[in-house]
Amino acid sequence: MRVDDVRVGYRGTANPFGAGRAVVTYTLTNAGNARLLPSESVTVAGPGGVGTRTVVVAGAQEVLAGSTVRRTVEVDGVLPAFRLEAAVAVTGEAVVIGGGDLAADRATAAGAAVPWAALALVLVVVGGAVLVGLRDGRGRGATTSATPAPDADGPDPR
User: In the predicted model, what is the mean pLDDT of residues 88-115?
Assistant: First the structure.
C-alpha cells in the first residue's frame, strides 16, 4: 500500500475568530498482488503542531491488487494558522482467510490557511481609525478664530 499525491486545502469561515475546514486529498496505490483493506488516518496541524486534528477514515473499501483510488477527507475545526501540514497514514491488511500481512505507508503535504475574515476585520478597524483620525485632525484645524483675544489688562488707555 502506497500513499501518493497528498494535497491540503483550507476552507475558511466568515467568522473572523472561527475555525474552518481542511480538505485533504490523496491517492492510495496497491502495488501488490492481494486485495488490501486499508486503515486510514489524516492529521492536520498548524506550525509547531498548533491546533492538531486527526480523523480516522471510517468505512474504507478494499483496494484491489494493482489498482489506485483517490480519497478526499474533510477535517473540521482547523484553525487558520497561515500554514497547514497534513499527514496521511495508511495500513493495509491483506484480505485472505485467517488474516494477512500488513503494508503501511505515510505521506505529508503542506498548504496555506490564511485567516481572510480576520485580516478583513483588521483592515476595517485600521481604516476606521485612520478616518476618525483624519476627521478629528480637520476639525481641530478649522476652529481657529480670526478675532483677536481681549487683553487681560483691559482696553488701551490712549
Answer: 85
**Is the distance from CB of 89 to CB of 54 less than 8 angstroms?**
no
Contact indicator for 8, 24 with CB cutoff of 8 Å: yes
Q: What is the model's pLDDT at position 149?
A: 58
Handedness of CA 9, 13, 16, 19 (dihedral sign): negative
Residue type, 94: A
pLDDT at 139: 57
Contact between 65 and 2 under an 8 Å Cβ cutoff? The reply is no
- pTM across the whole model: 0.73
Label residue 81 by pLDDT band (50, 70, 90).
Answer: confident
Helix, strand, coil % in the chain, rounded to nearest 5: 20, 45, 35
> For 52, which DSSP code?
-
Contacts of 52 (CB under 8 A, 6+ apart): 43, 44, 45
